[in-house]
Amino acid sequence: MPITNTKQKADGQIESHRKLTERVHAAGGKIAAQIYHAGRETSSAVTGVQPVAPSAVREPSMPETPRELTIPEIHTLVEQFGDCAKRAKAAGFDAVEVHGAHGYLAGAFASPFSNKRSDEYGGTIRNRARFGMEIIRNIKEKCGKDYPVLYRISSVEYVPGGLDIEESKVIARLMEEAGADCIHCSQGVYASTHTIIPPSVFLRAGYVEHAAEMKKAVQIPVIAVGRINDVEIAESVLQSKKADLVTMARASLADPELPNKVLKGRGDEVIRCIGCLHGCIGENGKGNGIRCLVNPLTGMEDEYDLTPAEKAKQVLVIGGGIAGCEATISAALKGHKVTLIEKK
């Protein structure tokens, strides 16, 4: 649900998003819309205009210096966030998450790494958190106090002069004060991207201690994230009480059926994320869309027809290499009876 100055165009997206939410609800699920403004973590090559930010300070990994937002522009953006959430609710989303992590606009205001202002939106922690707090309050005013609003935060930014865990705990409390119903505890900014999306060399669930610290600061639920890529690890985090919920984004790209397989006692069939970043980050960064190295169906669902065949056949696959195994899986998913033969 993009934030846009063209209200009619944005309202025109409600029906298409409703088709998505209706499918999720029909399957018994819940769905939230993540709403954000990229701030200085983008470029004019993407947006067509100069990026904007709390201050005219270039993000080290980006090619151009942003323009500093005026106070009237900040007020307009707060209203636009609220309008965006209102459209999300109208489209059937069960909640919205304000993305205030990874150096995006709300997070950039909160961080001394990117916010050098000396007015009411800069300086003290409360002033730096003001933009995010105003967004949450605006959403609650337009969507109702009972409409769930999550707030995503980078608990540690891993850059000189960036947020540390103690400052982030204060910001989380301020977001709770403003009306946030849940804190999604992430980490990093674009200049420390390896912490946002930890690769295979990083410890699995390696940032859970940040979530545990957040839980000490707020009374609302806290979500942990970061290489939580199998159910056993996820369950261990929950059992430890270090977080109330976990997110498993890349694990779900590797195998969207992960929860169903585990519930049905088929955990050994789960296609596991290996943390390679080649498909989900590499291909997407090239403009090719999201793919997955261990699941060729990811991002190609329209190209592959896996609806059951009208008539099941006997299929023989010779060769148990990667191609042979994938052919076997695909044929079996179509309902065929498959025999796989390997010489060794």
Automatic annotation (TrEMBL):
Q: What class of enzyme is it?
A: oxidoreductase
In its UniProt entry, what is this protein called? NADH oxidase
Chain ranges of the MnmG N-terminal domain: 314-343
- Region Disordered: start and end of each range? 46-65
**Keywords of the record:** Flavoprotein, FMN, Iron, Iron-sulfur, Metal-binding, Oxidoreductase
Q: Does the keyword Iron-sulfur apply?
A: yes
Q: Name a GO molecular-function annotation.
A: oxidoreductase activity
Do you know which Gene3D superfamilies this protein is assigned to? Answer: Aldolase class I, NAD(P)-binding Rossmann-like Domain
EC code: 1.-.-.-
Q: Which cofactor does it need?
A: FMN; [4Fe-4S] cluster; FAD
* Residue intervals of the NADH:flavin oxidoreductase/NADH oxidase N-terminal domain: 11-268
Task: Extract the InterPro entries matched here.
Answer: Aldolase_TIM, MnmG_N, NADH:flavin_oxidoreductase, OxRdtase_FMN_N
Question: Superkingdom, according to UniProt?
Answer: Bacteria
